[in-house]
Write a structure and sequence with these properties.
InterPro entries: Znf_RING/FYVE/PHD, Znf_UBP
CATH class: Alpha Beta
CATH superfamily: Zinc/RING finger domain, C3HC4 (zinc finger)
Radius of gyration: 13 Å
Strand order of the largest sheet: 2-1-3-4-5
Keywords: Hydrolase
Shape: globular
Order of helices and strands: HEEHEEEH
Number of strands: 5
Helix content: 10-25%
Distance between the termini: 36 Å
GO molecular function, one term: zinc ion binding
Protein name: Ubiquitin-hydrolase Zn-finger-containing protein
Strand content: 5-15%
Largest sheet: 5 strands, antiparallel
Pfam families: zf-UBP
C-alpha cells in the first residue's frame, strides 16, 4: 500500500498566521505531517525551520501548478509521494499573502533563495 501524505494544515503559513503582521512569499507543505510553512525567500523561512526542528526533511511546493519535492536535510530534490488533497493553496489566494498583511516594500524584504 502506498503511503499518502496527510492533508495540509491550512491554506497559509501556520507561524505567519499566528502573528498579527506575519506574511509569506510562497508556501511549502511538509509531506510527513502536512505543516504549511513559508519558503526560504520569505522573512520567516518557517518551512525549513519546521524541517530542521521536527526532523521532517521533505516538503513540496504548496503553490498552484508546482509539483516538485525538496529534501532540506540532503539539499536536493526528493522523490515525489502521493498527497492528500488539496494539492495547492487556493488559487484565488494571493502570493505573497495573506491579503492585507503584505508590506508595500515586500520585495526588498525577501531573502535570496
Amino acid at each position: 500500500m502506498t503511503r499518502v501524505a496527510p492533508p495540509p494544515s491550512g491554506t497559509g503559513c501556520v507561524e505567519c498566521l499566528a502573528t498579527p503582521d506575519g506574511w509569506w512569499f510562497h508556501l511549502r507543505r511538509c509531506v510527513e505531517c502536512g505543516h504549511v510553512g513559508c519558503c526560504n525567500a520569505s522573512v520567516g523561512q518557517h518551512a525549513s525551520h519546521h524541517a530542521h526542528d521536527t526532523g521532517h526533511p521533505v516538503a513540496t511546493s504548496f503553490e498552484p501548478d508546482e509539483e516538485w519535492f525538496w529534501d532540506y536535510a540532503a539539499g536536493e530534490a526528493a522523490t515525489p509521494v502521493p498527497l492528500a488533497p488539496p494539492r495547492w493553496r487556493p488559487e484565488d489566494q494571493p502570493a505573497p499573502g495573506p491579503e492585507g498583511r503584505v508590506p508595500e516594500n515586500w520585495k526588498s524584504l525577501l531573502h535570496p533563495e
